[in-house]
Amino acid sequence: MTVLVTGGAGYIGSHMVWELLDAGETVVVLDRLSTGFEWAVAPEAKLVLGDVADRDLVGRIIRDNNVDAIIHFAGSIVVPESVADPLGYYENNTCKTRTLIETAVREGVPHFIFSSTAAVYGGAGLEPVREDARLAPESPYGLSKLMSEWMLRDAGLAHDIRYTALRYFNVAGADPKGRTGQSTPGATHLIKVACETALGKRPFMQVFGTDYPTPDGTCMRDYIHVSDLAAAHRLALQRLRAGGKSLVANCGYSHGYSVLEVIDSVRRAFGHDFDVRMGDRRPGDAAAVVANSELARMELGWTPQRDDLDLIVNDALAWERILTTKNSVRN
Ligand code: UFG
User: Fold this and answer.
1) Residue 79 Cβ contacting ligand 1 at under 6 Å
2) Does pTM surpass 0.85?
3) Which residues are catalytic?
4) Any alpha helices (H) in 159-258, and if so which ranges?
5) Are 207 and 217 in contact (CB under 8 A)?
6) Domain parsing of the chain, residue ranges
7) Could you tell me if the CB of 206 is within 6 A of ligand 1?
């Protein structure tokens, strides 16, 4: 049995590939390398260059490798970009996912794990959000993912395919063994931006808004270590293979940190101060987005191992240093 990981050359996908290989699985990666990197794919995994909507190619991969599960990461993930190019996002995230599900059904793949997002909820409050909260995506990105969840639900009712959709909160950090990490240039994610600033790759960074209704006035998010997220997928795979029913579950730690707390953690990890400027709110940011993750813990038996902001930041900073070396060797 083989696991097909789409987007396995990207940030979360490349961690997933290591997680599966470490657990003794056989892995095929399908990636068109639009934002991922060939070097990010573990050498023990087979890498196929191509598109998830290429029915013939995906069908051949499934048959040739005896694929029994697809873990689907490939997609576009930048919220403001989705506002500027909604149709591009619906094409890349929703239409291509539809084709991939159709191919999975046609080829008789029984298990499907899907990368969903907290962006399906829209603005949440300080209270941890449960899976049955109101679904009100505020961006084409969030809606493109929610539509994919719904297609999976309906396909699961009509066909012999069971799925798990995991709604990620703020994924951060890097492989503790330093094998992969967040590598795409021009990142907008807070922990990555702060680490780049600490290492002098950016002259300064900004805090987007200091007047939110939160304890210190800056936005709060539920930062989850990418390795814990990969572990949740592995457990979801085990559960589906054992006959578990389809499931939609949040992946977060159930507590939030403010932007200023994150920056303080990066200062501690780096050991020096760096230039942080207070700025205006970024359009579209919710004051707080925190997961209720009871369901994932109960249903998947998921016990996070790295639920510690300093640990997440330390791994992110270590990866940023490795990336500096990799890039200077390449240049
Ligand atoms: N922030 C700053 N300065 C920066 C970057 C970010 O102050 O330079 C702040 C943001 O304003 C926000 C917080 O840090 O309050 C986190 O921002 P990120 O960009 O790291 O992450 P988001 O919460 O905006 O987005 C994340 C995922 C999305 C997902 C969304 C769902 O990256 O893919 O959560 O809630 F859609």
Assistant:
1) yes
2) yes
3) 141
4) 190-198, 226-241
5) no
6) 2-173+224-251, 190-220+254-330
7) yes
The confidence band for 328, taking pLDDT boundaries of 50, 70 and 90, is confident
Evaluate whether the domain defined by 190-220+254-330 bears CATH number 3.90.25.10.
yes
With a 6 Å cutoff on the Cβ, whether 261 touches ligand 1 is: no
Q: Is the CB of 282 under 6 A from ligand 1?
A: yes
Residue among 208, 251, 274 to mutate when testing ligand 1 (max atoms within 8 A of CB): 208
Nearest to 87 by CA among 76, 102, 71: 76
Residue with tokens 């961006």: 139
Does domain 2-173+224-251 fall into CATH 1.10.1530.10? no
Pocket mutation for ligand 1, best pick of 189, 201, 265, 274 (most atoms within 8 Å of C-beta): 189
Those residues with Cβ within 8 angstroms of residue 119's Cβ, 6 or more apart along the chain or in another chain? 79, 137, 138, 139, 141, 142, 145
Dihedral sign computed on CA atoms, order 233, 183, 197, 319? positive
Instruction: State the Cα–Cα distance between residues 234 and 231, nearest whole angstrom.
Output: 5
Name the residue with the closest Cα to ligand 1, atom 36: 119
Task: List pLDDT tens digits, range 240-262.
Answer: 999 999 999 999 999 999 999 99
- In tens, the pLDDT along 184-235 reads 888 899 999 999 999 999 999 999 999 999 999 999 999 999 999 999 999 9
- Residue closest via CA to ligand 1's atom 26 equals 170
